[in-house]
Specification:
Elements lengths: L5 E6 L4 E7 L2 H11 L7 E4 L2 E3 L4 E2 L3 E3 L17
Antiparallel strand pairs: 1-2, 2-3, 3-6, 4-5
Length: 80
């Protein structure tokens, strides 16, 4: 059985259960660079809209089974 591309997971930044999605190939590359890790295939990105006026999304990274994989909140930097 394949893993779904989106899941409703809790977000440590937003403080609730929101839609999360797996990273795209480009985002995986940026996450590896940003975090200094070799593997980021198990990271999920929060898709919650935090500012309805601008459409800005939360973008906090988490692992499927670990809501806080880092000591603080880590957000994937937006694309250039």
């Amino acid at each position: 059985m394949a893993t779904p591309r989106t899941l409703t997971l809790s977000c440590s930044t937003c403080g609730g259960r929101h839609q999360h999605r797996q990273l795209t190939a480009k985002e995986e590359g940026r996450a590896k660079e940003q975090l200094g890790l070799r593997a980021v295939h198990d990271f999920w990105l929060c898709e919650n809209v935090v500012d309805p006026a601008t459409g800005e999304r939360c973008r906090t990274l988490r692992r499927h089974l670990n809501e806080k994989p880092f000591p603080g909140h880590v957000k994937l930097l937006p694309p250039d």
